[in-house]
Every structure is written in C-alpha cells, then in structure tokens.
Amino acid sequence: MSGGLRRGAIVAMLLATMPAAADEPRPVMIGGDAIAASLTGRPGDAARGRAIVADRQRGLCLLCHAGPFPEERFQGNLAPSLAGAGSRLSEGQLRLRIVDSARVNPDTIMPPYHRTEGLSAVGAAWRGRPVLTAGEVEDVVAFLVTLKE
Amino acid sequence: MRAAVLAALLLAAMPAAGAEERRSGFADMSAATQAMQADDAANPGMLWVLDGEGRWSRKAGRTERSCADCHGEAAASMRGVAARYPAIDAERGEAVDLAGRIALCQTRHQEATPAPRESEASLALTAFVAHQSRGLPIAPPDDPRIALLQAEGAALYRMRRGQLNLSCAQCHDDNAGRRLAGSVIPQGHPTGYPLYRLEWQGLGSLQRRLRGCTTGVRAESFAPGSHDAIALEAYLMSRAAGMPVETPAVRP
C-alpha cells in the first residue's frame, strides 16, 4: 500500500493521451490517494452510474462486489461490499479507485477501469480501449458518492 | 531472463498445496451434477466415449489400419496414458497434448487426415483414450524438457492479462472457493477433460475451457496446440499431480 501511495503522492499526470471515445481527452491529475477533479469537467449522473455498476457486461462490479441492489441475484464476494462506500471514501478517492485501483494497492485484483497502458495480452476487441469511458467513470463516481450506508 | 526462468523453475518445483487441500471442481458442484457425473448411464460424456470406442477400431487412412490394429485393447494399452500428458513426442522432440498425439498417429500411422481439434471426432477419440485412465492419479513425466515447460506454464499462469488485468493465479489460487457473481471459483484443476459442460450442452476440451477464462478477462486466447497452450496445460497438470483423472467429467 505504501509504495502505491508514495507513487500517488507525487502529483502525477496519467493517461494524458487517453482517447476517451465521446469525451474530450483531458489529463488526469492524481494528488495523494485521490483524483479531485472530474475526468470530463462535468458531474456524472448517479442513475446512469447505478445502471453501469449493476451491468455485468459494462461495470462488472457485482462479479466481485456485493452492494445495495436487492433486485440483483448472484453478487460476488471477492471484495468489500459497496454499501457505505460514499461514507468511507471521498469523491476523489472513489474516482482514483475506479480509474486505477493499483495506485492504492499494487496487488489489487480490481481491474483498472480507465487505464490502457501497462496491460498484457489484451484481446483485439478491447485493445487500446479503457473498460469505462471518462463519462462512465464520472457516472459511477456520482452513484458511489450516494452510498452512505 | 535466466534468473526469471530459474525463479519460475523453483516455483514450479515447490510442493503445491498438499493433496488434501486440493479440490477438484467436482467438489464444488451441486449434488445433482455430481450424481450425473458419477453414473455412467446419466453422464452425457459417456456418449462421446462410446463414439470414440467405435472410432478406435475403425480402419482409416491410406494404410487402412485402425488404432486397435497397432495398440490392441485400449483398456490395457491406453491405461494411464492421459494421466501423463502433455508428453514429449520423440520424433520431433517437442511436447504434445493428448489430442495432438492422436492427430500425429492419424497422420503418421494411418496416413489419414487428422480430425481437426475440437471436432466431434477428435473429442470422441480423446475422451475414449482419456477415459482409460479414469481413477488413476495424474502423473506428469519426469523429464527435464517437461520441467522446463511446466516452469514456462507457471509464468503464464501468474501473468496478469487482458483488459481486466487478472492472472489465473489471482482467481484460482488467491480466490478459489469465493463467489465470482453466481459461480464458485474452482481451483482450476484439469482433471476431467474432455468434459461435458451443461453450459455448452456438449463435450469440450481444456482449451475451450481456457478460452472461457481468457475471454472473461478480455485477453487473447491461447491457440490450441500452440507452445504456450501446452506449457500452461503442463503446469496445470503438475499442479494437479496425484489427483485422479475423471474423464469424462461433468461441470455446470
């Protein structure tokens, strides 16, 4: 954890050249263990974010996490529950964990949702594309912030 | 580079979890699916084994010879064979998996066109041959070339891959027994291949199973029969050494 934090503590510029589909590319500023600013310069949409988190093709979150989704069967138990994530972590901390959780824990199994470099043997259909676009990351963050337990 | 190969060799040589801590995917299945595997009359994989038995004694190729013409009774000559594959093909000095070995026999000794990998014909013959080892402990050959292959496979097993950046080890060593959504993550032992998967509604090879795992993490698949595919299989077999062969297994 300390290594990841130390690296993160140096304000780093990451993904400066990310081609983010519909969103205009912007530099991602990491400060401490957080990304304070919205990746798109706009707030996300919490309702859209909830749908992404529950979608097993897009967010994939419930493969590993459980959370406050009474309508969703078969939630995973490889990771802490998402319930209360918005009380435990600030918006900026949540954003960094979605963009690239390895910045916080180098050994994490949580996929880097908005990083494309440093990956190996990516299938052709996914190569050079992040799991979530900048706009989708903002929607997910906007939803997680509402999870106050 | 040398150091990396050495380190991988050491890892491969380390005694994996003791046999008592290892679990076949069988142990994670529902009682109904276990019963289906255990009863030959209910196990759909036995249909392929029966089909393979027919092919075993069918004359084919320019030499008009059957497998049985050279190997006789499979119950005797093929007993224990699947338990020690992948193995080195003496003629080429390279490792082959069981399906690859069968295809080599078809080419060399029957002078026939081998059935393509994963065709029903290839699966049936492979299942019939592997079935002759059912209940026998997996026993990889004691050969330095296989040891090297196992070490390469161990490195592939530990390498993070795909858009989701996950290694085989992160699921099958670190998180086995936990739930990935609705599925219990098994330890990933290749004890039952080819096997009948309810999700496939058919018999499938280990390579097909691995395709599910690699595309699941949005990674490139291993080409069946390729060097890397055989190295990974050799490592998985060494990891499962001593566990009984289950072919034809049933999985959800």
Short note summarizing the structure:
By secondary structure, chain A is mostly helical.
Would you kindly provide a written description of the structure presented here, covering whatever features stand out?
The complex is a heterodimer of chains A (149) and B (252). Chain A has 149 residues and is mainly alpha-helical. Chain A has one domain: Orthogonal Bundle (Cytochrome Bc1 Complex, Chain D, domain 2). Chain A has six helices and two strands, in the order αββααααα. Chain A has helices spanning 2-9, 46-54, 61-64, 85-88, 91-100, 134-145, and strands spanning 12-14, 28-30. In chain A, strands 1-2 form a two-stranded antiparallel sheet. In chain A, α2 (46-54) packs across α6 (134-145) and α5 packs across α6 (134-145). The longest helix of chain A has 12 residues, at 134-145. Chain A is globular, with a radius of gyration of 15 Å. Residues 1-24 of chain A have low confidence and may be disordered. Chain B is mainly α. Chain B has a single domain (1-15, 22-252), classed as Cytochrome Bc1 Complex, Chain D, domain 2. Chain B is 43% helix and 7% strand. Chain B contains eleven helices and seven strands. Chain B has helices at 2-13, 31-38, 45-56, 67-71, 74-77, 98-108, 120-131, 144-158, 168-172, 206-216, 227-239; strands at residues 87-89, 94-96, 179-180, 183-184, 195-197, 202-204, 250-251. In chain B, the strands form three sheets. Chain B has a three-stranded mixed β-sheet. Chain B is globular, with a radius of gyration of 18 Å. At the A-B interface, α3 of A face β3 of B.
